[in-house]
Amino acid sequence: MFFVDAFAKHMPYAWAWVLSQVILIVVFLVCLLVMVAFILLYDRKIFAAVQMRRGPNVVGIFGLLQSFADLGKYLIKEVIIPAGANKVVFLLAPLVSATLAFAAWVVIPLDNHWVFADINVGILYLFAVSSLGVYGIIMAGWASNSKYAFLSACRAAAQMVSYEVSIGFVLVTVLLFAGSLNLSDIVRAQQGVGAFSILHWNVFSILFPMLPIFFVSAIAETNRPPFDLVEAESELVAGYFVEYSSTPFLLFYLAEFLNICLMSAMVAILFFGGWLSPIDIWPLNAIPGVIWLIAKIWFFFFLFAVVRAFVPRYRYDQLMRLGWKVFLPTSLLWVLVTAAWVIFVRHGGA
Amino acid sequence: MFQTIAFYLFSAVMLVAAFMVIASRNPVHSVLFLILAFFNAAGLFVLTGAEFLAMILVVVYVGAVAVLFLFVVMMLDVDFVELKKGALSYLPTGGLLGLALLTELVIVAGVWRMAPASHAALQSATPAGLSNTQALGRILYTDYIYYFQIAGLVLLVAMIGAIVLTLRHRPGVRRQSIPVQNARTPEMAMELVDAKPGEGA
Q: Is B47 on the interface with A (CB under 8 A)?
């Protein structure tokens, strides 16, 4: 809303609003892309450190510019479309993936009142967009006209739909607890005052058991190791993007990392107080909220990356058992427990 | 003005997508156009202020139902030429059914009078002071809780029915028991034998 008034002097208000929104969105996307570029390097550095390697260290100081060098390489390579592929769907799939990955960020509150779309059903929007992510993978798998890609698409459809169920119930417990579907309200509900304000975060409430479930489901939902059966290289070469090269591959790669960052942001917002500082005393609470949120995103991304490096890949039936027989009953039970707690403890009876 | 543009955009794309669902030759393309139609329907819901319904439409229909559709359609080994060949012989029956449905719809639309009291309710998607979600929740879980529960029971019966119909017990299958596996200790799995030289274990 920064530029609306300035533009409104020269043109009708509606156009000024649209123009300022477009400028803000472009700036936001560029910031997001730069963050993802460094997140990519961060991921590789963590993976290298676990294996006692150095990781990328040639391009720039400490390899800081590695992602940008990779970007240049992806952009100038030739786009190869397999002969038997369904051309339109083949090229549409990475676009769908990347667009959805970007679109989800529109409801993430960066700070108090710092959000593009402060919609009442923000958490449902996130859930809807993340449940659409499977389309990019299915379309890619089908359109590639390759056995490996198709098997990977089948796995992805089953896996992502399964884990969405438990993610959905975790979201229900959080929104019951906060009493709102608006992400900013969910963060504000975790606000406390003074040195012990951290105790107001959802992670220190009755919602605590939902944190590991959400974390593991998020890994499964983003198809990251140890749940990367969708792109299990020992069986499926590279899964759904085995036929992709150059820029379409870059879009998939980007979408994957944007989704992991989004999941990190969601862990921060749902359980760790989003933009809030852990201790509400000076000078910690003078730091802008967006810095806290980014710090939390990087911290949870670190956890995702470390899990990737440490844990061996699950077998497919184990993955399904975990989703349907462990997470679903637990999260369903916890919806009841949270609802009962809200009514009987917080409100003192119906 | 933007609302009007958005309305015509969503409606036009939705109608074209809906037409392409039945017109496109490739069934996978049909499902993808169906998804596009769902999306634009969700956009229309947002325009009327029914944001909760819009999101639920995307989550349930696009995120779950259409995925299963797409999954099944992709698995089908459809010969498109073969499919087109028989299409004309179904035309009389299908056309008749379509005509009957259209006539019924026209009759219903012609004689339907809306209750005067519900006009006001239609105009405002949400009562004042309540969010969309709260208003829906109040209707579903407070005003019509018994009907809602009965609908849930019907669905439960349908679900159990589907499971019973497809469930098949095969004898002689060695099933994995996770608790037994987890309870296994080194003592149960291996034995240390002191093998003397020149002899076997």
A: no
Interface ipTM: 0.79
Q: What angle do CA A106, A159, A321 make, to 5 degrees?
A: 130
- Alpha helical stretches, state H, A179-288: 183-188, 210-221, 233-236, 246-271
Query: For residue B185, what are the CA distances in angstroms to B180, B181, B190?
Result: 10, 9, 9
- Please give the Cα distance from A91 to B146 (Å, whole number): 49
Q: Which residues of B touch A14 (CB under 8 A)?
A: 1-2
Q: Report the predicted TM-score, pTM, of the whole model to 2 decimal places.
A: 0.82
* Residue among B71, B51, B47 at smallest CA distance from A128: B51
**DSSP bridge pairs for A111:** A114
- A157 lies within 8 A of chain B by CB: yes
Kindly indicate the confidence band of residue B126, based on its pLDDT and cuts at 50, 70 and 90. low
pLDDT tens sequence across A186-222: 888 888 777 777 778 888 888 888 899 999 999 888 8
Alpha-carbon span B194 to B156, nearest angstrom: 61
What are the residues facing A280 on neighbouring strands?
A194
CB-CB contact of A47 with A55 (8 Å):
yes
- Residue found by looking up tokens 């749902």 in the block: A270
SS3 of residue B167 by DSSP: coil
Give the range among A126-140, B102-116, B120-134 with minimum mean pLDDT: B120-134
Average pLDDT over residues A50-59: 86
**Strand, coil or helix: what is B125?**
coil
